[in-house]
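Hi Y.,

Following your request, here is the sequence exactly as I used it, all 251 residues.
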Amino acid sequence: MALQEEFEEQGNWLFKYRSFLPLIVLIIGTALYLRTEIYPETFILEETPYEIYYETIALIISLIGLFVRVYTVGHTPKNTSGRNTKQGQVADTLNTTGIYSVVRHPLYLGNFLMWFGPAMLTGHFWFIIVFILFYWVYYERIMFAEEQFLRRKFEARYLEWSKNVPAFIPNFKGFKKSDLPFSWKKVLKKEKNGLFALFLIFCVFDLSGEFVQNTNDYNYFLIAMCLLTGFSYIVLKYLKNRTDLLNEVDR
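Below is the corresponding structure, written out as tokens. Let me know if you'd prefer a different format.
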């Protein structure tokens, strides 16, 4: 099999199971975080006044990643930029405006930033580097498979758009206003789990760290946000499954 076909085949397989990548990062990251809490000498900022600032920066980076996803999903039409894990690639139209005018894969950029925050919490520089490399190799193949699919479906239009828009690092000079207005309903329906998962992870890290250290200096902001976003998730899940309140035509 030629390398091009092999990359595409690998990318399509990884695309279907890409939801498992965060679990791998989370399991390894949690173990390393707890090790840092048990052996604080392994992280230069552990048990110093600067530790809280470092953790806050990690949270902000993750929130920026969530914002990227929210902005992307809120401006896209139906059957694009979705969580298509079972049926494979889906694209009724080619998104070229809004955030897609500055970067070709904004959702994967958002995912990277969301998971880069927890990777930072481990306090292990080598793990952060490994995470970056692993994410690059993993999603490079997924992006390759997606682009092969889009190239075959949209042909010259795709080639013209991709020629001027970078794949992963945004170039804001070419920004074009989105063709569609922002839809909060679509965001609440599609991204309801992202905010809850983010604060749940940071909260679990904080609680587990205090547990292994046998202390109770909890971050009550994280606990409150975890409970609030968890309750919001349950409500939105109910609204999505039992009502039409979050439905919009062609969104």
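The chain has one domain: 3-183.

Thanks again,
Q.
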